[in-house]
Amino acid sequence: MFNWNVVLRSNDNQRYALYEYQGRNEEKIFQGNYSALTIKNGTYDSAMVAVKKADQLSVVENFKWRSFYTGIGAPYEDGQWKLTYFDIVGSYATQNNLPVYIEN
After folding, report:
1. What's the 3-state SS for the chain?
2. Which of 1, 29, 43, 100 could be joined to 83 by an S-S link, Cβ 3.0–4.6 Å?
3. What is the pLDDT of residues 50-70, one digit of tens each?
């Protein structure tokens, strides 16, 4: 009858495990592991500078406000960070992801 999403997070809030619980069947289904931040082709310090810049944008603030558990994919390509904010749980109140480009 009821389905719930359950998120288990690590003590450092950097990793999440997502499960769906189906009340009618009393079944727990593993949906996946997620990282709060995934960096590709760049340094942690440089990625954090880009994330801090992006976090000041109103579209990012709005997305994070409406997101239950926000993750960030952060590949560095062609002299810029291509940040993708996403909500691992999903919500009727927000889009699935938000791409943001920050020049280095």
Report:
1. CCEEEEEEECCCCCEEEEEEEECCCCEEEEEEEEECEEEECCCHHHHHHHHHHHHCCHHHHHHHHHCCCEEEEEEEECCEEEEEEEECCCCCCCCCEEEEEEEC
2. 100
3. 999 999 999 999 999 988 888
What are the pLDDT digits (tens) for 10-49? 888 788 898 888 888 888 888 888 888 999 999 999 999 9
pLDDT score, position 94: 60
In angstroms, what CA-CA distances link 99 with 6, 22, 73? Answer: 26, 32, 9
Question: Per-domain residue ranges for the chain?
Answer: 1-35, 36-104
